[in-house]
Amino acid sequence: MGITDSVTEQTTDTPFHLTGNFRPVDREVTAHDLPVVGEIPASLDGLFLRNGPNPRSGRSPHWFLGDGMVHGVRIRDGHAAWYRNRWVRTKPFTDPGARLVAADGTVDLTVGVSNTHVVAHAGSILALVESSFPCRIDAELDTIGPWDFDGALTTAMTAHPKICPVTGELHFFGYGFAPPYLTYHRADARGRLVQSEVIEVPGPTMIHDFSITGNHVLFMDLPVVFDLELALAGTMPYRWDDDYGARLGVMPRGARGDQTRWFDIEPCYVFHPANSYDRADGRIVFDVARYPEFWRRGSDDFTPDAHLHRWVIDLETGTVTEDQLDDLPIEFPRVPDAAVGRANDRIYGAVLALERSGLVGYDLGTGAAQLLELNDREAAEPVPVADPEAADAAGWLLSYVYDRAEDSSELWLVAADAVDAGPVARVTMPQRVPMGFHGSWITDPVAIAHHP
Ligand SMILES: [Fe+2]
């Protein structure tokens, strides 16, 4: 084990999230002009940010509970101009004694590890974790602090907000273990919170993500339910419940929360939708990475066996059809930012199974899948990058790729319409980038202003 790699001692009992490329790094690095193999298109001008758990102490009780660390690569003029990785200076980072839930049961939503996603909206960059308020950071990855939309936000915020490419609005929700279990929120294109709606659900489930269409907001109320015993044990307090059932919620955009309609589906779990849209026949298409079940034996029980599925919601008959679209085990499905909520055949994802890794690009119009299988390497979430010179072009994908033999990382740029052709550019990272969660390609000139 290299001294820069981890402060974690590895033993056979070490949980998976502290082994291999899941293990944390213990240094913050700033590096300039990174070596590139291949060619970065000269027109690309933006900041690739990626968040993930990286416990400062080297240990955490669960993969989802480590301190957030954001990795950033500034790309411009055909160069990888700089790399930075920074822990988000959250309350738990600066004060390990800080508690989301106090002994008297009160909840402090400014306490969160901000380890799951990082998005830009209305000139702000938000590091997100679903248990708490967002934490604003700047374009050099320095922490500004917790953000509650000028006091308007009164719930936690999902790590998976959706920016409508038509209106520029930020749609999101918060969920919690105490009522109201689910609340929908909408911020306008200027970042002002303009709508909050309680959405009634039967119980406290883990609602990691949701989706929007042009006309609707879609919720997933799935049977991974809050468990007080797990909470008291200090780990992820949710487990599978055979009795809870499963349902999809459909709320017209701009409607009241009590106008949400619910549609029963087969029990399953979904962390991540790929996308959803309104079909011309009035039905709603909802594509997701679906697990047949999740955390049946508690939250350390993780089998990566999600597959791309399509739900079609028929608002007239009140029914949902469900079809598996492919047999590849995938996670982290993404579509281009401009396709969020709109009909789009291209879906990208990471192949994720115990002994398998890769990247895949689906064309759901033709049924073709372009697969880039990685034998000695492991891919992370592929983040779509639009072609600034051709809005209709497929663009690229950015993904950190870990080399097991070298114990090192590269940032790969892959042509989105030729995923199986491999990377067009490989950026050599100055230190290993641990397997993390989600990221964004940020071109918002306000968000990255003053940080050339
Ligand atoms: Fe996620």
Task: Summarize the SSE layout with pairings.
Elements: E1 30-32, E2 36-38, E3 46-53, E4 68-76, E5 79-87, H1 91-94, E6 117-121, E7 124-128, E8 135-137, E9 143-146, E10 162-163, E11 170-175, E12 182-187, E13 193-198, E14 211-212, E15 216-221, E16 224-226, H2 228-232, E17 238-240, E18 247-252, E19 261-264, E20 269-278, E21 284-291, E22 307-314, E23 319-324, E24 330-334, E25 346-353, E26 356-363, E27 368-374, E28 377-379, E29 383-385, E30 396-403, E31 408-415, E32 423-428, E33 439-442
Antiparallel strand pairs: 1-5, 2-32, 3-4, 3-33, 4-5, 6-7, 7-8, 8-9, 10-11, 11-12, 12-13, 14-15, 15-18, 16-17, 18-19, 20-21, 21-22, 22-23, 24-25, 25-26, 26-27, 28-30, 29-30, 30-31, 31-32
Structural write-up:
This protein is mainly β. It is 2% helix and 41% strand. The protein is built from 2 helices and 33 strands. The chain has helices spanning 91-94, 228-232, and strands spanning 30-32, 36-38, 46-53, 68-76, 79-87, 117-121, 124-128, 135-137, 143-146, 162-163, 170-175, 182-187, 193-198, 211-212, 216-221, 224-226, 238-240, 247-252, 261-264, 269-278, 284-291, 307-314, 319-324, 330-334, 346-353, 356-363, 368-374, 377-379, 383-385, 396-403, 408-415, 423-428, 439-442. Strands 2, 28, 29, 30, 31 and 32 form a 6-stranded antiparallel sheet that branches. β20 and β21 (284-291) form a beta hairpin. The longest helix has 5 residues, at 228-232. Mean pLDDT is 94; it is low at 1-9. Fe (ii) ion is lined by residues 116, 159-160, 208-209, 271-272, 437-438. Fe (ii) ion binds next to β20.
* Oligomeric nature of the chains: single chain
Range of strand content: 35-45%
Q: Which small molecules are bound?
A: fe (ii) ion
Task: Tally the beta strands.
Answer: 33
Number of continuous helical runs: 2
Structural class: mainly beta
Helix content: under 10%
